[in-house]
Amino acid sequence: MLNFIKRNGRFILAFFIILAIYLFFGFSLNYGDPLANYGFSYAISKGEIPYRDFNLISTPLFAFYSSVGLHLFNNYLTFLLEQTIIVTITFYLLYKMFGKKSYLLLVTTIFFGYFAISPTYNYFCFFMMIILLYLEKYHSSKDYLIGFFIGTAICSKHTVGSFFLLPSIIFYYKDLKRLGKRFLGCIVPCLILLLYLLLNKALFNFIDLCILGLFDFSSNNGHVKTSYFYYSIICFIVSFIILLRHKKDINNYYLLFSIMFCVPLFDINHFGLYLNSIVIMLLPYVEIKYRFYKEFVLGLSFIIMILFFKVGCSFKIEFTRGFPRFEYNLHSSSKYRELSNKNSYLKKFSNPLLLSSYSMQYHIMSNEAISDYDVFLYGNHGYNGSLKLIERFNKIHNRYIVIDMKDYYNKSSHCQFNKKVASYIISHSEFVESKYNYNVYYKK
What we know:
There is one protein chain. The protein folds into 2 domains: 2-307, no CATH class; 330-443, no CATH class. The chain is built from 21 helices and 6 strands. The protein starts with a helix and ends with a strand. The chain has a 4-stranded mixed beta sheet with strand order 3-4-6-5. A two-stranded antiparallel ribbon has the order 1-2. Helix 2 (9-25) crosses helix 5, helix 5 packs parallel to helix 7 and helix 7 packs antiparallel against helix 8. By secondary structure, it is of the alpha+beta class.
């Protein structure tokens, strides 16, 4: 046991540091994509079928992986523990490939506020890419296995994982035997997913949400005028130059195509992942002669971490103990009180239709099923998604609708709240009252 700890001490330490980051430094985990991804896993653990019962817009492998632990203890903490395992294995593989150079990734990860390790299907696909890099470097002859993990990358996030087929095609288009093995390996997880969708009568919904819906998502959410778009272009140029100089390294092709993590949103969440891919691409060509390099990087990372924590502690924080399934989350005290008041207020209405960025968490805490309305965002409801939501709304009768006006009036270019449908609902419902930034309407 002691020998095991000595041999793997850095990875055991990494596990606890990563978990501490999630629990005590990752305040952004209370919002957005991490919360939604927990919601998808929660729904699966409750027996709901993705695509048919709720609007997941990516392939579902991460949601299924995360739902496993939730069968034992359905809590956000379990979800974070499962993510911590993935990130620790990622660090283990990177350390095996690059040694102490891999510590550089710690700086870029922390510098971007931990968004690069957010527990989402994006990171899970990134994790699959790291496994592929490791296999290509040390076990390149295991074509079936490499193909299998290309398939799992597709089943993690199809819009990125599909591009991981291209390096094999580029390298082995003349060796059809090897290429065929990789395709066969890739088909296995994809066929399992196809069978699952067919058995649960969710294939059409999957095609609508994850394939046809891409047109709606891109047209409504493409952000090509943000600073992260230009940063991404610079990184892509750098990666392309590296690839031209080192064409025989297949891993450079995987990393080149990792720009797809950013498309079409180009925000900090997706850019953080892409930047780490570029850093990985640079690591083989970086020479480190500084004797105390590891100590320097760890010290710098610790300083950045403390600065982020100080910013987080500029307001009073506490654990959200009154929120079922979120008892171990740190949140600002003022926000905690605000959400507690909203919870009490919503219970005033029988089965309200809540249109808010808070909707997913509210239904999880209430031990209720989630629905298409819990991710009420542009491009998240398939082809002509807004029209579908309006048609569904027209079939609703004798029900209260609660709209978060803070989301409705959010003018940020990154706000994806479906204001078009919300406006239609407002104009076709009877106003009841307003409180806590919620407007309540009644549909007869």
